[in-house]
From TrEMBL:
Catalyzed chemical reaction(s): (2S,6S)-2,6-diaminopimelate = meso-2,6-diaminopimelate
Gene3D superfamilies associated with the record: Diaminopimelate Epimerase, Chain A, domain 1
Keyword Electron transport: no
Protein role: Catalyzes the stereoinversion of LL-2,6-diaminopimelate (L,L-DAP) to meso-diaminopimelate (meso-DAP), a precursor of L-lysine and an essential component of the bacterial peptidoglycan.
PANTHER family: DIAMINOPIMELATE EPIMERASE, DIAMINOPIMELATE EPIMERASE, CHLOROPLASTIC
Localization annotation: Cytoplasm
Name this protein carries in UniProt: Diaminopimelate epimerase
Residues reported in the UniProt entry to bind substrate: N16, Q49, N69, G79, N80, N163, N196, E214, R215, G224, T225
Organism phylogeny: Bacteria, Pseudomonadati, Pseudomonadota, Betaproteobacteria, Neisseriales
Organism listed in the record: Leeia speluncae
Complexes and interactors: Homodimer.
Length: 283
């Protein structure tokens, strides 16, 4: 194999799709331009995020997990990707464990492969302080009013799952202003690192419909950390009770959270679609 090509695996979790690369047995150079080229739906392979497997920094952990959006940005966390990451390292024989300790840019997550083919991930505890999101606010609230450049206001809850989320409650996700308000919230000046914008419809105390306009990727068919953030926001507002079934456009996730500093547990599928080769970034 020419050294200027890389083997990759295409995977998806509820239609949120990924290019997964073994960065332990391959020497991989990542640049924003290369990410955008490979991530392009027409000129490249196409992905919402690229997931990179690396050796951990600390020997008590199993892997390091790096995540890149298709716009070329590196980010702290990806929930659907975490399930696919776990499936990948097991299927590739990079581990003989089924429960893993995986380092991310913001803490250690614990995916576990179930006998039923689903993957459950301890996503860690949510964070709410404005400086932890980060979100510019003078006080720490459950709800904030966000003034959009169009003159409209949206009421949001802010949650960090390692990556930032702004969740707004809507009456019907199908008619929610995802395309119009999504980009305005994503790039709002009160979010210095931008934000993932979630639109949540409460079906019952234990079921929601959810659409997410993702930071650096636009609307995806599902967002794992977005589902975690929406359920946490709904429980904090007294609208939901754990566990919650989350209906994304691409399928269903189960999210559990017992409040306070407890971890958020996410369960859902992880599917391998195909294997391939792609051009390595020029040094
Ligand atoms: N767009 C997100 C990263 C991917 C999250 C999503 N795909 C998930 O499953 O959590 C961000 O910039 O924070």
């Amino acid at each position: 194999m020419a050294t200027n090509t890389l083997s990759f695996t295409k995977m998806q979790g509820l239609g949120n799709d990924f290019v997964v690369l073994d960065g332990i047995n391959q020497q991989i150079t990542i640049t924003p331009e290369w990410l955008r080229q490979i991530g392009d739906r027409r000129f490249g392979v196409g992905f919402d995020q690229l997931l990179l497997v690396e050796k951990p920094d600390h020997p008590e952990h199993d892997f390091k997990y790096r995540i890149f959006n298709c716009d070329g940005s590196e980010v702290e966390q990806c929930g659907n990707g975490a399930r696919c990451f776990a499936r990948f390292v097991v299927d590739k024989g990079l581990t003989n464990k089924s429960r893993l300790l995986v380092e991310t840019a913001k803490g250690v997550i614990e995916p576990e492969l179930g006998a039923d083919g689903l993957v459950t991930v301890n996503m860690g505890a949510p964070r709410f302080l404005p400086e932890e999101i980060p979100f510019i606010a003078s006080t720490n609230e459950v709800l904030y009013e966000l003034a959009l450049s169009t003159g409209e206001n949206v009421t949001i809850s802010t949650v960090s799952m390692g990556n930032p989320h702004a969740v707004t409650v809507v009456t019907d996700v199908e008619t929610a202003p995802v395309e119009s308000f999504g980009p305005l919230i994503e790039k709002h000046e009160r979010f210095p690192e931008k934000v993932n914008a979630g639109f949540m419809q409460v079906v019952s105390r234990q079921e929601i419909n959810l659409r997410v306009f993702e930071r650096g990727a636009g609307e995806t068919l599902a967002c794992g950390t977005g589902a975690c953030a929406a359920v946490v926001a709904g429980i904090r507002q007294g609208l939901l009770a754990s566990p919650v079934l989350v209906n994304a456009r691409g399928g269903q996730l189960s999210i559990a959270w017992n409040g306070d500093n407890q971890p958020v547990m996410m369960t859902g599928p992880a599917v391998t679609v195909f294997e391939g080769m792609l051009p390595a970034a020029s040094k």
